[in-house]
Structure formats: C-alpha cells, structure tokens
C-alpha cells in the first residue's frame, strides 16, 4: 500500500486525502455549464475532476420493455427508461478534450469512468493519468482487464460487490497489468444514508486486499467522509454541481461549491489529526505544563511551622511539587520561611 503518484500528486495515508469532484451528468447537456463546473471545482481545492465516458448505445439497448425501465419508488429516476436516462446524462465525447484542457489549466487532474472498451481507447487518446470503474461495472471482468492493460492506476468503486466478487476483480486487474489499485467503499443508493454506509469496512478491505481504500460517498454533507478519513480512507469522491436547485440527473445528491470547499478543509483536518500513537506532552503542549496544579503556600509560613490544610493548597500554576505529594507534605515542617504564593519545593520541607 505504497503511495501512488498521479500527475505529480501523491495518494496515500502519508498524504492528505485525494478529493475527486464528480461532474457526472450535472452539466445538463451544456458545455458552457460543464466548464463552469470545472472552474468551480478548482476553486474548492479538489484535486481531480472526473466525468463519465459512455453513450446510451454503449450502456444499454433502446428497447421499451419492463427490463429496461426503472421501477423503484425510492429511486430518483423511478419510471424512466434506461436508454432515455443515459441520453440525458451522458457527456458528449467531443466535450472531453475541452473539459480536460480547462481542468489542467486550473491545476486539476482530469480523468473519467469508461463503461466499455471503446471508451478506454478514446480516453487513452486523451492521455488520462488514471481510470475509475463504477460500482455497477465492478464485475465486468473484460472491462477491468482492458483498463488494467493500460498500466495506469485504477480506482474501483465496490458498491454491491461481495468479497468473492471483489477478489475476482482485484485478481483480474493485477493479472492484466495494474500495479496501482485503489478500492472505494461505496453504497449504491442515491442518495445514501449514513446508517447504510458501513465505513468500518474501509480498514478491513484494505487489509484483505492489500490496497489503499477510499470512499465514494453519496450521503449528504461531509460527516461520513470525514469519519472515513479517520478509518484510513485516502480518496474521497463526491458528486459535484453548481447548485442543486438547477436540477439534473445527479443534482439531488451532489455537493455545491461551498460544501465541497468544506469537504476539502475538513478531511485534511481529520487526516492531520490522525497523527501517530503518542503519550505525554507534545512540543506544543509543553508550554501549557505550567498551568497544571501544584502545591503552594496559601499563607505566610514560618521556619519550623507545620504544614496544614490551612497553609498549603493544591492550586494552579504548576511550579511547585506535584499534587500527588500533598498528603505526604501535610504534618511535616517548613525548613525555611515561606511567603504566601510561594511554590513548595523539596528544599522547603
């Protein structure tokens, strides 16, 4: 699970989380809007801008029968025909280059999710530095092998996949030439709920397959993503739009610019806070040691006077003897005169 270099950006536990803004179909079939999304994503501090490469014909068949219709009252796309949905959501292939060029100009890493072999060949012509496999394609072994054969890093969402299915996917990717593989814990509901996300799987998945693990997050807000970083997530992917009010196929569970900016900041803070296992004062805490409690003279004490609860107290600051010695000091005599407010030391007893 060494760091993975993607266009000069390191991905790994020793580096801040790699944040992916997923445009998906939020361009609403406008190239101008797509470029505005790229610019907005760059301003949030996200590392990468991802799109999806398919056409309705590479995704499904243009057939009207129940198999090709979404029939789920809980789905955002309930009642829609698959072919028509993908016609509405796809990113025209001639838009890819201007989108990628704008992202690179703004310092972002542009890449895509291919959905068939022709998409991989097309993306190779655009020299994408990394590939993403969607959850619904994580069992498409021919596609996995095709992407892996490029030798470039792969990110695979694991929504719905069993351990056995993931093992097949990981083995296929490695055997076909992929050396740098990242799995993303994913719940394939849109939107997802925190209680259905099970991010405790992240470290288990990393140990099981010996890979970096991140999160493809369809929940609202930043809470789940921040928690996943504490569990070792190195990559966070969130759908991104200019405004949910503008509508679109994915807008309901997409982040707006201010939310993405908060995600970048909050996940980096979570990563910084992880640190290492440590006890005792840190370098920054050492200056605060003086504000601990210690034993002080609470009244003027004469040479030879007995220490009592009336003339010594455990108070702040911490320049005197530690509080653990308080009961031992009581009943002993002062070795010299002490003024009220003097810290008690071994020399005074």
Order of helices and strands: EEEHEHHHEHEHEHEHEHEHEEH
CATH superfamily of the largest domain: Aldolase class I
Query: What is the second-level CATH architecture of the largest domain?
Result: Alpha-Beta Barrel
Global shape = elongated
Mean pLDDT: 95
Q: What is the alpha-carbon Rg in Å?
A: 29 Å
Main β-sheet, spatial strand arrangement: 5-4-3-10-9-8-7-6
Largest β sheet strand count, sense and barrel closure: 8 strands, parallel
Q: For the terminal residues, how far apart are their CA atoms?
A: 58 Å
Number of domain units: 2
DSSP strand count: 12
| Number of separate helices | 11
- Specify the structural class: alpha/beta
Helix content: 25-40%
**Which topology of the largest domain does CATH recognise?**
TIM Barrel
Percentage beta strand: 15-25%
Contiguous uncertain segments of 5+ residues? none
CATH class category of the largest domain:
Alpha Beta
């Amino acid at each position: 699970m060494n760091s993975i270099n993607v266009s000069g950006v390191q991905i790994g536990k020793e580096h801040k989380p790699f944040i992916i803004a997923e445009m998906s179909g939020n361009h609403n079939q406008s190239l101008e809007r797509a470029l505005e999304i790229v610019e907005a994503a760059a301003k949030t501090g996200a590392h990468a801008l991802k799109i999806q490469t398919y056409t309705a014909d590479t995704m499904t068949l243009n057939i009207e029968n129940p198999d090709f219709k979404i029939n789920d009252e809980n789905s955002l796309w309930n009642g829609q025909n698959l072919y028509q949905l993908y016609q509405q959501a796809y990113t025209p292939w001639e838009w890819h280059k201007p989108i990628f060029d704008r992202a690179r100009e703004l310092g972002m890493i542009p890449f895509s999710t291919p959905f068939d072999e022709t998409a991989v060949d097309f993306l190779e012509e655009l020299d994408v530095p990394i590939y993403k496999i969607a959850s619904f394609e994580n069992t498409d072994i021919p596609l996995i092998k095709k992407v892996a054969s490029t030798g470039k890093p792969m990110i695979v969402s694991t929504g719905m996949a069993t351990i056995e299915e993931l093992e097949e996917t990981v083995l296929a990717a490695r055997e076909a030439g992929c050396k740098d593989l990242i799995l993303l814990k994913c719940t394939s509901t849109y939107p997802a709920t925190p209680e259905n996300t099970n991010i405790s799987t992240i470290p288990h998945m990393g140990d099981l397959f010996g890979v970096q693990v991140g999160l493809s997050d369809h929940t609202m807000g930043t809470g789940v993503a921040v928690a996943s970083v504490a569990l070792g997530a190195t990559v966070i992917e969130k759908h991104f739009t200019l405004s949910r009010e503008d509508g679109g196929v994915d807008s309901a569970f997409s982040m707006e610019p201010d939310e993405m900016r908060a995600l970048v900041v909050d996940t980096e803070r979570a990563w910084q806070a992880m640190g290492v296992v440590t006890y005792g004062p840190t370098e920054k805490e050492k200056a605060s040691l003086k504000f601990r409690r210690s034993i002080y003279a609470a009244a003027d004490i004469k040479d030879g006077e007995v220490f009592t609860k009336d003339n010594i107290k455990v108070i702040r600051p911490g320049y005197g003897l530690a509080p653990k010695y308080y009961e031992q000091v009581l009943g002993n005599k002062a070795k010299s005169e002490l003024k009220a407010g003097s810290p008690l030391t071994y020399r005074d007893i």
